[in-house]
């Protein structure tokens, strides 16, 4: 929050890069580098943009996922944030293809994300600290899947406020 005033005059890619750098340097564990990479890659995907359209948001999803996969060496089905963001991206793209607005598509992405969070309760963690629990991780939702879905929710709410 302290850094927000320093990026208000920057293009979207600069804001995303700043968020990413802040996360990498301040958030401990695997989350900081994973989210930081996701944000920095997202910034590269929309370089020079002052406003985002539906295709740009799809590019952000793709870049974030690519960054998470690259940094975390994970895939869906391993009880990670990918179990929420990948179905979220797919739902977003499907809604846009069906002629929905950006906000409606983000609402679909959020719904798919929450379903992904629920799915993580049914599988064994194979990445991160939760993997040490083995079968005992069943029944608990993945915190990365949860937090990334909150990010999708925040994007949807920003779209609602902007009237998109």
Question: Any overview of this molecule?
Answer:
This protein has helices spanning 12-26, 31-45, 54-72, 82-97, 102-120, 143-162. The protein is mostly helical and 164 residues long. The chain is globular. The protein contains six helices and no strands. Helix 2 runs antiparallel to helix 3. The mean pLDDT is 93.
Give the structure's gist in a few sentences.
This protein is an all-alpha fold and 164 residues long. It has helices at 12-26, 31-45, 54-72, 82-97, 102-120, 143-162.
Order of secondary-structure elements: HHHHHH
> Sheet bearing the most strands, described?
none
User: What ranges have pLDDT less than 50 throughout 5 or more consecutive residues?
Assistant: none
* Percentage of residues in strands: under 5%
Distance separating the two termini: 24 Å
Alpha-beta content class = mainly alpha
Number of strands: 0
Helical fraction equals 55-70%
Count of alpha/pi helices: 6
* Overall form: globular
Give the overall pLDDT as a whole number: 93
* C-alpha-based Rg, rounded: 16 Å
Write the layout of secondary structure elements.
Elements: H1 12-26, H2 31-45, H3 54-72, H4 82-97, H5 102-120, H6 143-162
